[in-house]
Specification:
The chain has 13 helices and no strands. It is mainly α and 298 residues long.
Length: 298
């Protein structure tokens, strides 16, 4: 064996050794569960019996015929509302923190705290703030505007709005960190050249800053969309059984309920596969449209 072939062989072996943990994790926690889920969706598995027989697409038909499934789809789409809002406020916050002003590091920590705090603790605080009887929000509305505040915790419409507000508040901090990192990667020579050409700060923002932030915005949009569509913990903690008339439950809550409350594992697997296909389609559309607005350099 020649020396070159020996070196190439050793490089391949080294590469396989390095990627082995990641590949093992991929197979154990993604590929194998996915294949088992697809298989289970075509059976009558109910988690209480070892008997599993093939039933074809009957589980998918049952899911499509279930009114709660379509309600959960609508509520899941509703949970996409926070994305443009927290992206906008996070960008403003990042631009402010990017300036060398006293105390900006303290504000970075303060805005990041909600993201690393316990979601259970946050929900308890928000339940207290939005309590329809003694909550600070309704007291404020009554005192300064003379109006009776809504039933934030009992009315599904207002519960969803409260969750949207909470998600925006929670995700501004971590999103701003991404934007701040992107801002630091923009060469200052661009701004210096623009200043020499007489460009104002507003012109520099729309001609330099905003285009160079589009890759980060695209990444945050994709991740945010997938994350928002998987909203579950807030629904579980704020509501009972998905809210009145299933008015708050998302599709992840629907899948969890079918699997672990009603022991309809096969039906839950079918809903999970449909949900995965939906996310895949939306992500592919985003990737296709990204060519029209994401700046990738000259």
């Amino acid at each position: 064996m020649s020396i070159k072939k020996k070196i190439r062989r050793e490089e391949k072996i080294s590469g396989l050794i390095f990627i082995a943990p990641a590949m093992l994790q991929f197979f154990i926690f993604f590929l194998i569960p996915l294949l088992l889920c697809i298989y289970a969706s075509f059976t009558n598995w109910n988690a209480l019996s070892t008997n599993r027989s093939f039933v074809g697409i009957s589980n998918y038909i049952r899911v499509f015929q279930d009114a709660k499934f379509w309600k959960s789809i609508g509520n899941t789409i509703y949970m996409l509302i926070p994305i443009p809002f927290y992206l906008f406020f996070a960008m403003l916050f990042a631009l402010a923190c990017h300036k060398k002003v006293p105390g900006n590091k303290v504000f970075r920590v303060i805005y990041y705290l909600p993201y690393i705090s316990s979601i259970v603790a946050l929900v308890i605080i928000w339940k207290w703030i939005f309590n329809p009887e003694f909550g600070l929000v309704n007291i404020f509305l009554q005192k300064f505007f003379g109006i009776v505040g809504p039933d934030w915790l009992g009315n599904p419409v207002w519960t969803k709005r409260m969750i949207v507000i909470m998600i925006i508040w929670k995700l501004i901090g971590p999103t701003a960190i991404y934007y701040l990192a992107a801002l630091k990667n923009i060469p200052q020579t661009y701004y210096e050249a623009a200043t020499v050409d007489g460009a104002t700060s507003v012109k520099q923002f729309f001609s330099i800053t905003l285009p160079l932030l589009t890759p980060t915005t695209f990444y945050l949009t994709v991740v945010g969309l997938i994350g928002s569509m998987q909203t579950f913990i807030e629904i579980q903690l704020f509501t009972t059984d998905g809210g009145r008339d299933y008015g708050v439950a998302t599709i992840i809550y629907y899948i969890w309920q079918r699997a672990f409350k009603y022991n309809q594992m096969a039906m839950a697997c079918a809903a999970a596969i449909l949900f995965s296909i939906l996310i895949l389609i939306i992500t592919c559309i985003q990737l296709k449209l990204s060519n029209k607005w994401v700046y990738e350099g000259e």
